[in-house]
Amino acid sequence: MHEAFFEAGKGWELGPDWPGARCGAKTRQGTHCQNPAMRGKARCRNHGGKSTGAKTAEGLAKLETLHLKHGRFTKAAKAEAKRRAQIGREIRAELRDIEKEAIAAGTLGKDWREMFKP
Ligand SMILES: [Zn+2]
């Protein structure tokens, strides 16, 4: 840091002991920028803190592709997983009903599962 700056008796409000949020942008040295981040943001004014985000359809589409890794958690994939889970629940419920009926009719013993144990 600049020695003369401290010798002049001026306080440095945003010095090393400042408790606020720091900018996390990667510098050319590979370290974090460490400048004070802008209020409510994670970046300083030099590293996109002033940005209000993508606005154009082109920019929003680019963001979408940047943040999509494999698509297993897209809305469509989640809806499909829910649909399959529901089918599974329905099939298992039907099997339970069939089992109950077969046991009640006497075609299946109460401990029929024991016969298939290894
Ligand atoms: Zn920065």
Automatic annotation (TrEMBL):
Source domain of life is: Bacteria
InterPro entries per UniProt: Putative_zinc-bd
Give the residue ranges for region: Disordered.
Answer: 26-58
Q: Entry's NCBIfam families?
A: HGG_STG
Report what the protein is called.
Answer: Uncharacterized protein
Source organism per UniProt: Planktomarina temperata RCA23
